[in-house]
Hints:
The chain is an alpha/beta fold. It contains 14 helices and 19 strands. The longest helix is centred in the last third of the chain and has 19 residues, at 365-383.
Amino acid sequence: METHGLPKMISQAGPRHANPSAFPEADELARWDREHVWHAFTQMAEYEPLLIERGQGCKLIDIDGRAYLDGVSSLWCNLHGHRHPTIDAAICEQLSKLAHTTSLGASNSTTIRLARRLVELAPAGLEHVFFSDDGATAVEVAIKLAFQYWRQCPKPRPQKNLFLALGDAYHGDTLGSVSVGGVARFHALFEPLLFEVARLPAPRSDRAPPGAAAAGALDHHLGQLEAALQEHHERIAAMVIEPLMQCAAGMIAHPEGYLRGARELTRRYGVLLIADEVAVGFGRTGKMFACEHEGISPDLLCLAKGMTGGYLPLAATLASDDIWRAFLGRHEDSRHFFHGHTYGGNPLGAAAALASLDVFEQERVLERLPEKIERLRQHLATIAQLEHVGDVRQRGLIAGVELMRDRATATPYEPGERRGWRACLHAREHGVLLRPLGDVVVLMPPLAVSLEELDQIAAAAAAGIQAACSD
Length: 471
């Protein structure tokens, strides 16, 4: 048999081909994938390859030609579908001019235009944009900016070296973002490397806090926050929060009003607020930014994932004018920000991001979301009736379905049973790609998903859950 006019690859038992990466067969790609590619958050001893070859719209097609609906937006970043002509064209046009130039002491027109566009869209008061590579780096930048700010602001307070974060929070996998994170199963091993953080229990809208009624959850959690600020505000540089929904924590939805209360309290006690909108930004919650739901502006806003429509790695940390001014001075004062990324502000990524924002306007993406959000809500109400569904949580087109052995007693499954993972594997048989967070089955389709595609995603999730929990 011949492939593309060339002889079939020599087997591993024979002499190695001069160019072993030329025209590999599917089974060889799978073998190379197992042997050479170290996948994130994956036990490689158990890994079974799924080789995606191409995408079109909300579908991904594997190397054997099987099509799957992208039910988790390629890890929560794809917005407008794959191979969107507007974004494809923008990247090609930019590539004909410039692929990359450093942002250290230089700039380019595409990235400048993106910075201006982000400032115009963002909550009021965020006038300055620092570009980096991904969500973790956006948070890392915010942490370092907050730390340095208190040493250089008009009334320096260098004792402010403590950060306040929430339980079960996830903000990325760099050491700074891991420090403010709180998902033990991800990061407990690295605890000796992390800096000190003050932590509060995650405010949940689905469960009554200990010693309080569900109706009083908001007051309870804001009371905890104020008590922590009263005690430690002299040391706290900033509070870090995912607005509305803690996604990687298992889709934990906050009580309505918590974000607004956190903004009021941090301002009252002289603490910066860092809003991590890496996962919840760019339309995921039904508005461009989650902060808009409660009408607040943070001091620092972290963006990534959907910023380029899911095409290229690009992140941004937006800062207030007060923070910006604390870094201005003469060169010899060493007040500038000693931090940077080689590909920060990459013009190809910026071109994709500008095109993605154009798509929001041209296709009226936000205006069309309510119908999709409601359709998903209806499906989730049905899924919630399944025997082993303990809870369903939704914000916009973000949803988590929590599986339990006994929902009446809130008894979870043993982690080793991997019910969530099994549910997602079964959903794949129905043509939908999902990925769980433990025993929480996540549904986060592209914003471009059609109502019919939402129907298929929900049906596959339901079938997967029933199959995984049938014994």
